[in-house]
């Protein structure tokens, strides 16, 4: 059994070699660092490299399992993976920990007017009458009720927020007081003070949010996107914010990444931008490797996986 990494793993390399003496590990710096011999007879690819594409996978004719260290798989050649019966796992759950902290940081940054305080500091202005707003009692709506929403809900509930969610079927979710089906999205948006998109990119979610959805939100609403930028067309969100249809947006993901310096979003005052960093964490690699190790133990004995398996057909 040969397992080839898509990134260097530091001290984790020795941990893997010692834990699985019957597996031949090859540690590389990505797809361009993997030689033809290893491509032909590798059984497992693990790690992350944004350059991985269908042509590369076609050269890995023996590949049985791709253990993707990111949560999002929308950039992978899912049709090829599906048609060739390649098992696929991701890092779901690990990234939710820091993403939940970012979501709450965005909310508090906005509600406590921290941006205004920083501007005042820059201008050497001392305004002791600046007054923020409490988050308790505010309705926080998640588009998508997966691990990110559930982790954030535990924090939001502790702060006495009202947590609601939208998912495909309207099924109950722990920590979420009320759920809506996607068919009732308009109703859900009308009730929310804060709307957070955590949905993955699928055929159904691309441009799911149209101008009319923002028009259904409260004019004082806060919109946060940490899911995928393709949830809303860039021109739609730009015009919505320019026209103050809602009050404020925090955007971490974008339809076209990376943003170029001349991108219109940089110049809209009620948009706060972070550069797709909410999933970044120094602990990620170690924690995703623990998932990989648990799956590998099971895979070696049963040729199947026990957690974080992704259906290439649906993308989650």
Automatic annotation (TrEMBL):
<dbReference type="GO" id="GO:0051287">
    <property type="term" value="F:NAD binding"/>
</dbReference>
<keyword id="KW-0520">NAD</keyword>
<dbReference type="InterPro" id="IPR006139">
    <property type="entry name" value="D-isomer_2_OHA_DH_cat_dom"/>
</dbReference>
<dbReference type="Pfam" id="PF00389">
    <property type="entry name" value="2-Hacid_dh"/>
</dbReference>
<dbReference type="Pfam" id="PF02826">
    <property type="entry name" value="2-Hacid_dh_C"/>
</dbReference>
<keyword id="KW-0560">Oxidoreductase</keyword>
<dbReference type="GO" id="GO:0016616">
    <property type="term" value="F:oxidoreductase activity, acting on the CH-OH group of donors, NAD or NADP as acceptor"/>
</dbReference>
<protein>
    <submittedName>
        <fullName>D-3-phosphoglycerate dehydrogenase</fullName>
    </submittedName>
</protein>
<comment type="similarity">
    <text>Belongs to the D-isomer specific 2-hydroxyacid dehydrogenase family.</text>
</comment>
<dbReference type="InterPro" id="IPR006140">
    <property type="entry name" value="D-isomer_DH_NAD-bd"/>
</dbReference>
<dbReference type="InterPro" id="IPR036291">
    <property type="entry name" value="NAD(P)-bd_dom_sf"/>
</dbReference>
<feature type="domain" description="D-isomer specific 2-hydroxyacid dehydrogenase catalytic">
    <location>
        <begin position="40"/>
        <end position="301"/>
    </location>
</feature>
<feature type="domain" description="D-isomer specific 2-hydroxyacid dehydrogenase NAD-binding">
    <location>
        <begin position="105"/>
        <end position="277"/>
    </location>
</feature>
């Amino acid at each position: 059994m040969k397992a080839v990494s898509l990134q260097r793993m530091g001290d984790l390399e020795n941990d893997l070699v010692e834990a699985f003496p019957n597996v031949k590990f090859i540690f590389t710096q990505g797809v361009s660092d993997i030689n033809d011999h290893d491509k032909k007879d590798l059984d497992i690819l693990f790690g992350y490299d944004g350059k991985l594409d269908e042509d590369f996978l076609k050269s890995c004719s023996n590949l049985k399992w791709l253990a993707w260290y990111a949560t999002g798989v929308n950039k992978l050649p899912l049709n090829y993976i599906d048609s060739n019966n390649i098992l696929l796992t991701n890092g779901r759950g690990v990234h939710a920990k820091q993403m939940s902290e970012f979501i709450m940081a965005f909310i508090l940054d906005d509600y406590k007017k921290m941006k205004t305080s920083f501007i005042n500091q820059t201008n050497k202005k001392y305004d002791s009458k600046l007054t923020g707003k409490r988050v308790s009692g505010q309705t926080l709506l998640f588009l998508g009720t997966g691990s990110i929403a559930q982790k954030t809900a535990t924090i939001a509930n502790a702060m006495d927020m009202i947590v609601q969610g939208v998912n495909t079927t309207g099924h109950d979710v722990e920590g979420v007081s009320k759920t809506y089906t996607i068919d009732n999205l308009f109703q859900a948006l009308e009730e929310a003070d804060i709307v957070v998109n955590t949905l993955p990119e699928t055929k159904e979610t691309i441009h799911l949010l149209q101008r009319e959805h923002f028009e259904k939100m409260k004019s004082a609403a806060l919109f946060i996107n940490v899911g995928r930028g393709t949830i809303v067309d860039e021109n739609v969100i730009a015009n919505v914010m320019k026209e103050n249809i809602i009050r404020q947006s925090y955007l971490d993901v974008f339809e076209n990444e990376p943003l170029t310096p001349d991108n219109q979003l940089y110049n809209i005052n009620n948009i706060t931008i972070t550069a797709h960093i909410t999933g970044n964490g120094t602990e990620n690699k170690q924690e995703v490797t623990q998932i990989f190790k648990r799956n590998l133990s099971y895979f070696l004995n049963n040729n199947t996986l026990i957690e974080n398996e992704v259906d290439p057909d649906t993308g989650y």
